Amino acid sequence: MDVKAEHRYAKISAFKVREVTREIQGLPAEQALEIVRLIPKKAALLIAKVLASAIANAENNNNLRATNLVIKEALAGEGPTSKRMHTRARGGGARINKRSAHIKIILTEAEPVVEKPKKAKGIKKNKSKTKVVSPKGTAAPAITAPSPDVSQLRAESADATSKSLAAGEHPEKVTSSETI
């Protein structure tokens, strides 16, 4: 069941309110109320009042427990803008927009979340087994290359007939006796 609370014509810009509403979206209501009380902004104070009102509405009107409430939506819409004038030099003027906002919070009842036990780090599933599927749908055995012998991998025992060099060896400088 959804429960809502609204503050209309709040004397603050909707842009400033949205910064705080994004932070509490989807959180449990009591946790969001604690977070909002720690934020040092005017918008946070207004949102805290609306959130507390929504929790009170849920408890008193719908007999819901505050521990099971989750913020479904926290919206900040633009209200009407009052246009004012500010005098400027040489008889001119500039316009000041005094913005307002409509703050709306919708709570819903959710079952308490039970945390799943976490897996120990370092334990991984073996995903090296690959299967090649034939066109008929029967699985063919995986083709694996034979692993080379350890003695073949060592660079010191490079073949004398090969042109490759062992590890740590550098080609000698070739100096020609001919001068041009």
Number of helices: 4
**What is the rounded distance between the termini?**
96 Å
Helix fraction by DSSP (H/I, runs of at least 4): 25-40%
Number of strands: 7
Strand order of the largest sheet: 1-5-2
Largest sheet: 3 strands, antiparallel
Low-confidence stretches: none
Mean pLDDT: 81
**Backbone structural class:** alpha+beta
Task: Name the shape in a single word.
Answer: flat
H/E topology pattern: EHHHEEEEEEH
| Strand percent estimate | 15-25%
What does the radius of gyration come to? 36 Å
Brief rundown of the structure:
The protein is α+β, with helices and mostly antiparallel strands and 180 residues long. The protein has four helices and seven strands; from the N terminus they run βαααββββββα. The protein is 25% helix and 24% strand.
Give an account of the 3D structure.
The strands form 3 sheets. The protein has a 3-stranded antiparallel beta sheet. Strands 3-4 form a two-stranded antiparallel sheet. The chain has a two-stranded antiparallel sheet with strand order 6-7. With 180 residues, it is an alpha+beta fold. 15% of the residues are buried. It contains 4 helices and 7 strands, in the order E-H-H-H-E-E-E-E-E-E-H. The termini are far apart. The chain has helices spanning 14-24, 29-38, 42-61, 150-153, and strands at 2-10, 69-78, 82-87, 93-98, 101-109, 132-133, 139-140. The chain is flat, with a radius of gyration of 36 Å.
Chain-wise SSE layout:
Elements: E1 2-10, H1 14-24, H2 29-38, H3 42-61, E2 69-78, E3 82-87, E4 93-98, E5 101-109, E6 132-133, E7 139-140, H4 150-153
Antiparallel strand pairs: 1-5, 2-5, 3-4, 6-7
